[in-house]
Amino acid sequence: MRYTDVICSFCGTLCDDIEVVVEDNRIVDVKHACRIGTAKFLSSNELEHRLLKPMVRKNGKLVETSLDEALDRAAGILKSAIKPLLYGWSSTSCEAQSAGIELAEELGGVIDATVTVCHGPSVLAVHDAGYPGCTLGEVKNRADLVIYWGSNPMHGHPRHLSRYSIFPRGYFRERGQSDRELVVVDVRKTDTAKIANRFIKVNYGEDYELISALRKVVNGGELREESVAGVPRKEIIELAEKMMNCQFGVLFFGMGLTQSYGRHRNIDNAICLVRDLNVHTKFVMQPMRGHYNVVGFSEVLGWQAGFPYAVDFGRGFAWYNPGETTANDVLQRGECDAALVIASDPVSHFPRKSVEHLAKIPLVAIDIHPTPTTQIADVVIPSAIAGIEVEGTAYRMDSVPLRLRKIKEPPEGVLSDEEIMRRLLARVRGAESGVQELEVRAR
Amino acid sequence: MKLILKNGFVYDPINGINGERMDICIQDGKIVEDVENGRIIDCSGKLIMPGGVEIHSHIAGGKVNTGRIMRPEDHIKNVFPKTGVTRAANGYSTPSTFLTGYLYSKLGYTCAFTAAMPPLMARHTHEELHDIPMLDKGALTLMGNNWFVMRYLKRGDVELAAAFAAWLLRAAKGYAIKVVNPGGGEAWGWGRDVRSLDDPVPHFDITPREIISGLVKVNEMLSLPHSIHLHANNLGRVGNYVTTLETMELADGAKPARERQTVQLTHVQFHSYGGDSWRTFASEAESIAKAVNSKDNVIVDIGQVVFGDTTTMTADGPMEYYLSSLTGLKWSNRNIELETSPGVTPFIYSKHSPVSSVQWAVGLELALHIKDPFNVLLTTDHPNGAPFFKYPTIIAWLMSAKYREETMKEVHRAAQRNTTLATIDREYDFYEIATVTRAGQAKSLGLSEKGHLGPGADADVAVYDINPEEVDPGRDYRLIEEKFARTSYTIKSGEVLVKDGEIVRVVNGRTLYVDAQVDESLERELMRDLDYYFKRFYSVNLANYPVQEVYLTNPTPIKVETGVR
Amino acid sequence: MKEIVLVPREQPDYGLIAECISCDVFAGRSLEEVENLPVYYGNRRGKLADFFDVSGEVAGRAEEQRIIIDGNVTKTRWIGRGMSAGEIVVRGSADMYVGAWMSGGRIIVEGDAGAFSGMQMRGGELHIRGNAGDYLGCSYRGEWRGMSGGRIVVDGNAGAEVGQNLNGGVIFVRGCVGTFAGVRMKKGLLVAGSAIDRVGAQMVGGTIVVLGKVERLLPSFDFKGEVENPAAGDEKFAGRFRKYTGDHAERNAKGVLYVGDHG
Question: Of A46, A70, A87, C24, which sees the most CB atoms within 10 A?
Answer without folding.
Answer: A87
